[in-house]
């Protein structure tokens, strides 16, 4: 599928996000940044680099089917979770610190913090209900799900404060989200992750996740 929608962030970032199977002659007018997702492999790399794009990341689809794993996800929740709707400032602060190099938010080869902040501010502003966890009165992590269909939800945004990553907050959030989604009748919990994010890959695998559809991400600043 070829998606050519320009998304605006912060009043100065206009991202043209393209997901396609083969390189093409796209109309890039109106964009300040372009991000292209192609099937993984060297075939597309030479073409994209010749057009001034830089390789950014290789990503993977992941999905968990809780009814098929026989895992008791509720027992993996070691830190109490709370469903909230209004903690955007704290959530944004955690997200900004957690994603120094993530290509979902950094849209240029040189990792522009200002651009990443604009993207994250827009994403956090869109969040509805969010699962959060605290330690000693301080929020240390969050996870937001988004409904895809009547049977599927996706992990839209999630992060844990770096100083608390050994606390079990990440596992509690993801296991709690899977448990919550399954009890609401959803059969699939999906996500898209960087192949460089080994801790999250390992956590998804522990929770029964399966991986597919590797795609390469290319970036260009206009």
Polypeptide structure, described:
Helix 3 (88-98) runs antiparallel to helix 4. This protein folds into two domains: 5-59, no CATH class; 62-213, Aminopeptidase. It has helices spanning 42-50, 66-69, 88-98, 113-126, 169-183, 198-206, and strands at 5-9, 13-19, 33-39, 54-64, 81-84, 130-135, 138-149, 152-160, 188-194, 210-221. The protein has six helices and ten strands; from the N terminus they run βββαβαβααβββαβαβ. A hairpin with a 3-residue loop joins strand 1 and strand 2 (13-19). The mean pLDDT is 92. By secondary structure, the protein is α+β, with helices and mostly antiparallel strands. It is globular. Strands 1-2-3-10-4-9-8-7-6-5 form a ten-stranded mixed beta sheet, with helices on both faces.
Write the layout of secondary structure elements.
Layout: E1 5-9, E2 13-19, E3 33-39, H1 42-50, E4 54-64, H2 66-69, E5 81-84, H3 88-98, H4 113-126, E6 130-135, E7 138-149, E8 152-160, H5 169-183, E9 188-194, H6 198-206, E10 210-221
Parallel strand pairs: 2-3, 8-9
Antiparallel strand pairs: 1-2, 3-10, 4-9, 4-10, 5-6, 6-7, 7-8
Helix pairs in contact: 3-4
Sheet of most strands: 10 strands, mixed
Residues in β-strands, percent: 35-45%
Number of helices: 6
Q: What fold name stands as the CATH topology of the largest domain?
A: Aminopeptidase
Q: Estimate the helix proportion, in percent.
A: 25-40%
* CATH architecture classification name of the largest domain: 3-Layer(aba) Sandwich
Structural class: alpha+beta
* Rg result: 18 Å
| Average predicted confidence as pLDDT | 92
Strand order of the largest sheet: 1-2-3-10-4-9-8-7-6-5
Given as residue ranges, the uncertain stretches (5+ residues, pLDDT < 50) are: none
């Amino acid at each position: 599928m070829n998606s050519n929608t320009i998304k605006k962030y912060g009043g100065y970032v206009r991202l043209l996000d393209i997901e396609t199977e083969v390189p093409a002659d796209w109309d890039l007018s109106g964009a300040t940044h372009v991000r292209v997702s192609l099937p993984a492999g060297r075939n597309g790399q030479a073409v994209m680099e010749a057009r001034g794009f830089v390789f950014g990341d290789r990503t993977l689809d992941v999905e968990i089917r809780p009814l098929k794993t026989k895992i008791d996800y509720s027992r993996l929740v070691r830190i109490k979770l709370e469903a909230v709707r209004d903690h955007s400032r704290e959530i944004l602060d955690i997200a900004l610190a957690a994603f120094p190099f993530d290509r979902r938010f950094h849209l240029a080869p040189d990792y522009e913090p200002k651009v990443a902040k604009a993207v994250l501010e827009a994403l956090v502003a869109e969040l509805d209900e969010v699962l959060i966890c605290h330690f000693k009165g301080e929020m240390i992590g969050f996870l937001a799900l988004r409904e895809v269909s009547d049977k599927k939800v996706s992990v839209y945004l999630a992060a844990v404060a770096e100083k608390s990553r050994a606390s079990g907050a990440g596992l509690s959030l993801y296991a709690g989200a899977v448990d919550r989604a399954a009890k609401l009748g959803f059969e699939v919990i999906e996500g898209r992750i960087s192949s460089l994010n080994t801790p999250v890959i390992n956590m998804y695998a522990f929770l029964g996740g399966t991986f597919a559809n590797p795609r390469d991400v290319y970036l260009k600043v206009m």
